[in-house]
TrEMBL record:
Organism annotation: Sulfitobacter sabulilitoris
Domain of life: Bacteria
A GO molecular-function descriptor: oxidoreductase activity, acting on the CH-OH group of donors, NAD or NADP as acceptor
UniProt domain Ketoreductase: residue ranges: 6-183
SUPFAM superfamilies: NAD(P)-binding Rossmann-fold domains (SSF51735)
Family indicated by similarity: Belongs to the short-chain dehydrogenases/reductases (SDR) family.
Protein name as catalogued: SDR family NAD(P)-dependent oxidoreductase
Record GO biological process: fatty acid elongation
PROSITE patterns, A to Z: ADH_SHORT (PS00061)
Matches recorded under InterPro entries: KR_dom, NAD(P)-bd_dom_sf, Sc_DH/Rdtase_CS, SDR_fam
Amino acid sequence: MHTTNQSIIVSGGSRGLGLHLTERLLEAGNKVATFARSHTEAMDRLAGTYGDAFYFTPLDAVDAPGVAAFVAEVADRFGAVDSVVNNAAIGQDQLLMHTDLDTLRGIVDVNVIGPTLLTRAAIKHMILQGGGNICNISSICGSRGYAGLSIYAGSKGYLDAMMRALAREVGEAGIFVNSVAPGFFESEMSSVLLPEQLNTIKRRTPSGSLSNDENIFKVVDLVISGTTNMQGQVVFVDGGITT
Ligand SMILES: NC(=O)c1ccc[n+]([C@@H]2O[C@H](COP(=O)([O-])OP(=O)(O)OC[C@H]3O[C@@H](n4cnc5c(N)ncnc54)[C@H](OP(=O)(O)O)[C@@H]3O)[C@@H](O)[C@H]2O)c1
């Protein structure tokens, strides 16, 4: 483990990758705060196991005052905001010509506005503290094309581009901003893929296997450790499918 004794915000920690990151970072001795729209049984389990080192509240990532209040609450409870993992997002499985305006706006709201609001609120604390780490969970879709994912891909491309500009903006304040871009991994979001599609992806992957939550955790753990001097980078965790 590289990251310990930090105060960390992971958005969308109620299930999927966000839950795994939350749990592993807690195990490593960090304080972790997370939010999602729904309260899952896992949130009660983590509260029971980790007590005051864990904080969950139901919150929509696009609720600007709610997100600002959440970050202030975390700073108050934990005494700092050392790292933020922008994980919450929604997927897409639709050709652009069939996508209505509400769906388009929904993806942009959650995947673009959401992480921007959280980052904006957190860097104010990080600047006062003298440093911190922002890690965006992007996707290989932000750099490579996949049919049916155009808006989602655009939202991840935004995250990567915004991350690079922000790295220049806040780097001097000791804040490291990077993206971790996984390939497809098993979760509710990727459950729209048929078994034959998953097999095709595996066949085209040099390592022969899809990434899993733990592979991604290992990279996120390193990226937010503050020990690497890595700044403004997209790190792919995809078994080499984008090479
Ligand atoms: N799965 C893949 O193959 C894959 C590949 C590459 C990258 N990624 C990226 O990895 C990250 C995690 O994906 P996943 O597969 O673990 O997704 P997931 O299983 O669908 O989980 C998404 C999490 O985000 C939360 N969330 C969604 N909309 C939200 C909103 N408006 N406000 C607050 N929380 C919200 C969800 O909780 P609620 O719904 O209760 O709000 C849930 O906790 C995402 O950034 C995704 O784009 C996934």
